[in-house]
Each structure stands twice: as structure tokens, then as C-alpha cells.
Amino acid sequence: MNSKHTDRHGRRHILAVSRWRFLAIVVGVLLPMTWGGAAGLASAGDGGAAGAETSKPKSIERADAIATLRTQIETELERAGGSWESWAASLETFRDQLSVATSGRWPWTTHRDFRFQGAAVQLLRRDRVRGGNESVDPAEAIVHLDRQLRARGIDLIVMFVPDKVAVYPDYLVREPMPEMPVTIQMRRLMHELTTRDVEVIDLYTLYARFRAADPDTDLYYDRDSHWLNTGARLAADQIAQRLARYDFAQEARGPARYRLEPHERTDGAKADHILRVLQVDSDRQYSDVPRSPVIITGDSFSMYNMHLGGHLSAHVAHRLNMPVSFICREGLGPDLPVELARRHREGRFLEGRRVVVWTFVGRHLERGRWVKLDLPDRPALAQVDLHRLPATGRIASMAAPPDDPRTAVYTDYVRTVHLKDLKDDAGNVLGDGQAVVRVLAMRDRRHLPPATWRADQEVKLRLSSWNRFEGRFGTVETGSLPDEQVELTLPLFWGERIELNDQDAAEDESTEQRDR
Could you tell me the maximum CA-CA distance found in the chain, to the nearest angstrom? Predict the structure, then answer.
């Protein structure tokens, strides 16, 4: 983790912090790391004392958090000339250089051979976020979910995870760096949300301050776009501070339920010194629970090191001294309202919850499809338990096809398909003749036939209840249907194709054997 890059590029940071503020920054970053004792980053090497009492995260009240961030961004705006237009104008030279730096073939030439994501770079060219195709404004979607949850007595906390290029823009565009943050679009979105009474965690400023205080400790992998465990633990600490104000967090204080154990992994270029979260009483790896007052949600960032018990929600649980619920999927961000609504329709998922923490990496604001969705109050859908039932149907609509395998963010893709005229082998109509089916459309960066399906095409599938396959495919990126209401009104199945060529049939047979 300690890569020796102490040149002027490695020391520059996005906020261009002046010297007189440097001491305050160091204090502001390093002191929170020590609040947790063994839970903090300062004592990461000892793995945590199994019998030590869990420390109390600093409690940050909701109104104070919202007002503080709003004031901070308004101060930045004043320093930029008093308008978003003047702030954007100060970034023109940077953006020109950004275009030059990314005009060649990917991976682009960067300091220390850092690799940056194309969608993340594209976001830096925006003055404000706009969402993907056919999206509503992301701010409108976020505010709408906040109001929907609040009507049910549930608070929403939003945390945007900075893309790597947002923290290290000087690794791509060297000199000169602008005085104002290059992430104007994120500052503008966060400001709008705070003016509309939505609570936001500002990791952008935290990471910039961390980099200024400790320029030799990286927050991201070199070749991978994801954060190192250090970045995840910093984020978890911020979440725990916000949750510390709730009664359930105060009641959880006491003898430590979890301890930390060092572990190491690498992306082939950089070691990641991970802290695994283990249960004190059994020494087993931490496991999220289905029912908790806290729901942590996230994309592939929050999932990182989940197989080791070192992921985001594990470290939140360690800091709170209580387990949490976790919803995760590659690319999950814009799709969260649909996912919450579907789960609630099927099993009263939101009952008894107090807080939803919505986390996702910033680039999803550029490529995701955002919707304003009302959470359902109707009774749960009746679920039909099927396993490998042969059926035919005609495609009514589909999620977008997977990305080009050469540039896709993720290696696999599950496509969501709305089928009509659904019948079994005997020609009997199944249910009301409609269903939503998820089917594997890309595996190991290779497109499968569902990637090229078209509307009104007839397909033959073996249908199984989605809950039989959710454990295996539930965290794989899956697109959403053009009409999100369809997913909330029809049963959800997993589909395997019938009448395949020999190679694809062998792959499906292998899948079946693994799932037995």
C-alpha cells in the first residue's frame, strides 16, 4: 500500500488546499481514524483486540450534516466567482488537456500507469450530472426516493463514491491543475440535494484531505478502478458516524462482537492490506443479516472483498457493533428504487427499517437510467416456485444489451426480459401469460445469444423461480426494463435457453450441475 510516489504530481490534490489549512486537514483526517481504537485505521496492523470494548463512533446529527455540507459548497462557489458558470469557466484549460490526454487508445498514458474508467472521465467533462438515456434528472430521482422512504419513517443517507480519476486527476492531466475542484458536477449535485433536505456524505472532500495528509498511501488499485480497503474503511467510518445518532446504534454499544484480522490481496501491481471482520464469539467471518434497522446498498465498490468479510457493510457493522442488511449488485445505483420496490412487494422488505444508506460510484450518474418510482403499499405478490419448466414466450421488451466485451466494466451481464404469450410445452398459458425473466447475456466478456435478442422474437427457455438463482447471479449487473412498473407487477424468473448449439448447451449443462 505504501507506494513511494513523493513527486509533485503525487502530492497535488483536487482541492488545492493552501498551506495554512494543512495542519487542520491533518488533524481533521487523522483524528477520526483513531476514534475506533482497534477499529480505526491507525491500529490496522494489530487486527483488533478480541475482548476490547467497541468504541463509540462520533455522532453527527442529520440537520448539522446537511447544513455543514451546504455551507461548505457555497463557500467554494463564492471562491469560484459566485456562480456555477464562473466555476466551469475556470476548468476550461483542464478539460482541454483532458481531451488531449484521452484522445489516444485506452489505456491512456498516466502517471504510475494508473488506469482510469472512460465513463468516469466523461463525467469530469460535465458541468452537471444528467443521467443516462431516457433518465429523469438524478437529483429528482434521489429526492423522490428520500420522500418515499421518509413517509414510511425511514431516513435516507446518500454517499457518492469518488471515481479514481476524481481523486487523482493530476495523474492523467499533469500541469497546471485548476484551483477549484474539477468535480463541479458532483459539488453541484450535492449542493442541490442539501438544499432539498437530503443527507449526503461527502467522500470527495474526505479523500482529497486524506491524500493531502498522507500522499504515500493510495486509495485505489493501479489497474483496477475500485478502491483499496483503506478507502472502504474511511467510507464505513463516515457512515457509522451518521448512524451513531440512532437509538439502535447506542443500544449496540458494549463488549465487542467483532474483531479485525489482517489479510492481503493484489491486482497484480499493488498489494491491498485488507482488514477482515470476524465474529468474536465464533471466529467466523462477518455475515450480513436479512433483517436489520440499517440497509446498506451499493455497487461493485461496496462488494469488494465481500468473500473475505472485508467489504463496506462489514466495516460499518464492526464500527456499530451490530450486523446490518446489505443489498448489492454490480452497477446498482440508479436501479435501487426498483430493487427496493420489488423486494418490498415480494416480502414486506422495508418493514421495521430505520435507515437506508444509498452508495454508488459517481460514474453511474453518467451512464445509469434514473426513475421516479413510488414504493408500493399493496400486498406481496404471490410467488410461484418453478424449477426448469420448459416454456416459450415472445419478447415484449428488454433491458439494454450488454456493453462491448472489450470495454465493458464488468465481465458478466444478466439481461432482464419481459415475455408475453408465455406457454408451457403443451401449449397451456402460464399464469396470465406474462413474466419477467433474467437470463445470462454475457459471460467472461463473451456475448451469449440473449445479447442479440430483438423485440417480438420468440424464445424458448427453462424457467426457474428467481430465488433459486439469486444467490449465484443476484450480484451480477442486470439492466432494467424500459417500463419499471412491469418488474413490480409480474413474477420474476431465471431463464436458461432451450435448443442451443452444442457449445452453449454444454455451458448450460455445466451451470445446471453447479447449481445442484
Answer: 79
> Per residue of the chain (516 residues), what is the pLDDT tens digit?
333 333 323 333 333 333 333 333 333 443 344 333 333 443 333 333 333 445 678 788 999 999 999 999 999 999 999 999 999 999 999 999 999 999 988 889 999 889 999 999 999 999 999 887 778 999 999 999 999 999 999 999 999 999 999 999 999 998 789 999 999 999 999 999 999 999 999 999 999 999 999 999 999 999 889 999 999 999 999 999 999 999 999 999 999 999 999 999 887 778 899 999 999 999 999 999 999 999 999 999 999 999 999 999 999 999 999 999 999 999 999 999 999 999 998 888 999 999 999 999 999 998 778 999 999 886 555 667 788 999 999 999 999 999 899 888 899 999 999 999 999 989 999 989 999 999 999 999 999 999 999 999 999 999 999 989 999 999 999 988 999 889 888 999 999 999 644 444 444 444 444 444
Q: Residue 302 has which C-alpha cell?
A: 461496496
3-class SS of residue 319:
helix
Tell me the H-state helices in 263-335: 300-303, 312-320
pTM of the complete model? 0.86
C-alpha cell at 37: 481504537
- C-alpha–C-alpha distance, residues 231 and 170, integer Å: 19
264 forms beta bridges with 273
**Polymer length in residues for the chain:** 516
Rounded Cα–Cα distance for residues 404 and 422 (Å): 30
Three-state DSSP string of 172-229: CCCCCCCCCCCCHHHHHHHHHHHHCCCEEEEHHHHHHHHHHHCCCECCECCCCCCECH
Residue 124 CB: number of other CB atoms within 10 A? Answer: 26
- Is residue 472 within 8 A of residue 506, CB to CB? The reply is no
3-class state of residue 401 by DSSP: coil
